[in-house]
Amino acid sequence: MLSNRNFVIAATAVAPITWGSTYFVTSQFLPSGTPLLDAVARALPAGLILLAITRRLPHGAWWWKSAVLGVLNIGAFFALLFLAAYRLPGGVAATVGAVQPLIVAVLASRFLGERLARRQILAGAAGVAGVGILVLQSQARLDAIGVLAALAGATSMAAGVVLSKKWGQPASPLALTAWQLVSGGILLLPVLLLVEGLPTQPPSLTNIAGFTYLALVGTALAYSLWFRGISRLPVGATSFLGLLSPLVAVLLGWAFLGQSLSWGQLLGAAIVMAALVSVFVPERGERAQKEAPKAAVAH
Known about the structure:
Elements: H1 4-19, H2 22-29, H3 35-54, H4 62-87, H5 90-97, H6 100-111, H7 118-135, H8 144-167, H9 173-196, H10 205-232, H11 235-238, H12 244-256, H13 263-280, H14 284-298
Helix pairs in contact: 1-10, 1-12, 2-10, 3-4, 3-9, 3-10, 4-8, 4-9, 5-7, 5-8, 6-8, 7-13, 9-10
């Protein structure tokens, strides 16, 4: 059987695995050219549903803390993510976004007192390289605004993740997720109305199915598991699970969209998985420290 730690890691990994399906669902089920609508339709309904389930509102300082986390983890992150996606090829955006685990590890060492291990730095560099090999195309172009948006989005969520750990959880992960999604969705709503506007055509049944999946599975469930994992695991290591998203996106494209999968991409996938294993498998010294108390009890 899985140990409790491994079970928490596996459950938390469901979040980035689910996020990896976003491109497939967006391209196949949602109307084209509506990124802000997609973001609002993901965040706000999911947050309101969780709020109705938990029936718990923020209290005291958690009104402004929830707003801050909602901006960092949802509102600003989604907006910057879609800006980067519009100005950069998907491979470039994913590769720039892959620096997020490194940013989280550095912030966690500074503000949470987590140890910044050498293997985390090496794993972070390997993760960026692996994602680059996995998703970058030879004709990929760079756009300064797009790159800055991707970096700002990764930094925004990295700061939100670290603050989520630092501030703790005054309520269940479902309630905390609800507060952030509602805050982020409310922030995005005026941006949608001013920049993109509401669609002129009613959504089709296919569109509704896509929005429902992204709201319930890709957002409500995924973010609840993500914040639950952050509360129980070292945040510097947990952030590396985000490397699973581009891997899943490529595999879904190969399985359902007829996209090619080269040997180079398989190498990139192997590098990503090796980076994840190096972060989550304890080193010999760490295992010895964990086993020492058990040995003392046995004697």
